[in-house]
Write a sequence for this structure.
C-alpha cells in the first residue's frame, strides 16, 4: 500500500515538474536568449546583438510611458482596493448572516474582464452611452473615453469595481481567523473601535494576507485585457500599459528580439517592486 502511495506521489511530482518546465521555465529561457538577438520574423532576420536591445530600452520613450501608465494604474487601483476592501470586509464580518450582501459583493469578480470592459465601453459611448447622459443632468461634460484624464479614471473605476471583491475575500478570511477573546479583552479595557482596528485587526490581517496584497499589486501592474478592450491604449497612448506595449512588439511589429528584452527588463522591475513592497509591509507590521 505504501509503495502504491509513493508511486502516485512520484507520478504527480513528475507531471507537475514537466508542466512547470514546459509552460514556465522553457518559455522564460527562450525569451531570455531571444532578448540578445535582433529577430524580426517578416524580414527573416536573426542577428546576435548582445545588450543592444537593452540599451535601446533606456531611450525608448514609448516603453517608459507604458511603464509609467502601469505603475500609476497599479498604485491607484491597489490603494483604493485595499482601503475599500478592508471596509467592506469589516461590514461583511459584522453582518455574517447576510448572504445577500456576500453574493452582491462577489458578483463583479465572477464576471469576465473583457465582457465587463466591453459593456462599460458601450455605456460610455459619446452618442448613446447611458453614463454620459446621466452626467448631462449635472452639466458635467467631456467624461468620455476620448478624454485623456477621464479615460484613465474610468479604467481605475472599472478595475476597482471588478477586483475589489478579491481583497474583500482575503481580508474577510483573515478577520474570521482572529480570536474573539482579544476583542473581549479590549472591551473590558473600554477600548474604542479605533483601537480595535489599529491594535488588533490590521496587525493580524496584514501579515496574513501580505501575499494576496502582493499578488493584487503585481496583477494590476500587468493588466492587459481591461485597457485593451476598453480604450485600446488611447487616447494617444495615455492608457497603454506595459503588457500592451510588449504585445504590440511581439504580434504587431513581429520584433521578437526586442519584445523579449522588454519582457526580461520588465520582470526585473516587477521583482524590485515586489521586494520593496514586502520590505515596507515588514517595517509597518513586523512578522516572520
Amino acid at each position: 500500500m505504501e509503495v502504491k502511495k509513493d508511486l502516485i506521489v512520484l507520478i504527480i511530482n513528475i507531471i507537475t515538474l514537466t508542466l512547470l518546465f514546459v509552460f514556465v521555465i522553457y518559455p522564460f529561457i527562450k525569451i531570455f536568449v531571444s532578448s540578445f538577438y535582433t529577430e524580426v520574423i517578416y524580414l527573416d532576420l536573426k542577428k546576435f546583438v548582445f545588450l543592444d536591445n537593452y540599451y535601446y530600452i533606456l531611450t525608448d520613450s514609448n516603453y517608459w510611458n507604458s511603464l509609467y501608465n502601469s505603475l500609476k494604474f497599479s498604485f491607484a487601483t491597489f490603494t483604493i482596493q485595499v482601503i475599500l476592501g478592508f471596509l467592506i470586509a469589516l461590514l461583511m464580518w459584522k453582518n455574517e448572516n447576510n448572504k445577500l450582501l456576500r453574493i452582491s459583493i462577489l458578483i463583479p469578480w465572477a464576471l469576465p474582464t473583457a465582457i465587463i470592459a466591453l459593456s462599460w465601453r458601450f455605456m460610455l459611448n459619446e452618442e448613446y452611452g447611458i453614463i454620459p447622459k446621466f452626467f448631462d443632468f449635472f452639466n458635467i461634460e467631456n467624461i468620455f473615453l476620448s478624454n485623456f484624464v477621464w479615460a484613465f479614471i474610468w479604467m481605475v473605476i472599472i478595475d476597482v469595481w471588478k477586483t475589489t471583491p478579491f481583497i474583500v475575500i482575503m481580508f474577510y478570511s483573515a478577520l474570521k481567523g482572529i480570536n474573539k477573546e482579544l476583542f473581549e479583552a479590549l472591551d473590558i479595557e473600554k477600548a474604542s473601535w479605533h483601537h480595535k482596528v489599529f491594535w488588533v485587526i490590521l496587525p493580524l490581517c496584514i501579515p496574513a494576507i501580505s501575499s494576496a496584497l502582493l499578488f493584487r499589486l503585481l496583477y494590476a501592474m500587468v493588466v492587459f485585457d481591461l485597457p485593451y478592450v476598453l480604450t485600446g491604449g488611447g487616447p494617444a497612448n495615455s492608457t497603454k500599459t506595459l503588457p500592451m506595449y510588449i504585445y504590440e512588439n511581439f504580434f504587431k511589429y513581429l520584433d521578437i528580439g526586442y519584445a523579449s528584452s522588454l519582457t526580461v527588463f520588465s520582470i526585473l522591475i516587477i521583482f524590485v517592486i515586489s521586494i520593496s513592497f514586502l520590505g515596507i509591509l515588514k517595517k509597518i507590521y513586523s512578522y516572520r
Notes: The longest helix spans residues 61-94.
